[in-house]
Amino acid sequence: MPKITEIFFDCDNTLVLSEELAFEACADLANEILQTRNIPDRYTGEQLIKDFVGQNFRGMMISLQAKYHFEMEKDELEVYVKKEEDKVIAKLEAKAKPCVGATEELEKLFESKKYGMAVVSSSALRRVRASIKKVDQDKFFDHDKVFSAATSLPKPTSKPDPAIYLHALDAVKKTAAETVAVEDSKSGALSAIRAGIPVIGYVGSYNGEETQTEMGKRLTDLGAQVIMTHWSEFEKCMAFIENAPAAEIQSAL
């Protein structure tokens, strides 16, 4: 098995506790869209997280259209995408906090120089940069090693589409076998797995031991190699993947 030399990190609720803040803003806009279509249902941020965690706003709106059987014109969707980005960034710049233990592990990895490091997110690039800057993690990532499915690709997409991971692999000139991804959501894990990348499933941002156990099982069932409940377990999780037989990695993917 090739030596692992690169780590890809999801951002939202993997490095930065941003999902709850972001979904508060998304709920307001989703409800506005539903109201203009005379659809009586309304979302809270918590309900949106339950239904659409791991998707960016564009992906959520596509799912919302499918669920409620309506269509948005491209121009209207783009207006709302921009509105959402501005609203979420304002909330993140005011309130975002790092995931517990994430910054300490990034510091150790950065100082060790053992691996290259990149951020691979579904969220808009402005939002990802605002998130990691607010929590002082931007210093660990080169400017050109922050990738966004919403912004970095010729055609915007969202996880679980593997396009952003394939793009990141190409950009850093690595094979999937030389890389590990850290993901907290089903859509994120599936995106990396579809790109052939071994996954550490992080569940530390979910509330309660029962929820963490449930999410860990879901991520494992998808093909995540190992589950991490706290960032202090990161080295152990990396060692597990690095020492696993190649056949075992491939069978899980």
From TrEMBL:
One of its GO terms (molecular function) is phosphatase activity. Its cofactor is Mg(2+). InterPro entries: Beta-PGM-like (IPR051600), HAD-like_sf (IPR036412), HAD-SF_hydro_IA (IPR006439), HAD_2 (IPR041492), HAD_sf (IPR023214), PGP-like_dom2 (IPR023198). Keywords: Carbohydrate metabolism, Magnesium, Metal-binding. The keyword Chaperone does not apply. Pfam families: HAD_2. PANTHER family: 6-PHOSPHOGLUCONATE PHOSPHATASE, HEXITOL PHOSPHATASE B. This is HAD superfamily hydrolase. The lineage of its organism: Eukaryota, Fungi, Dikarya, Ascomycota, Pezizomycotina.
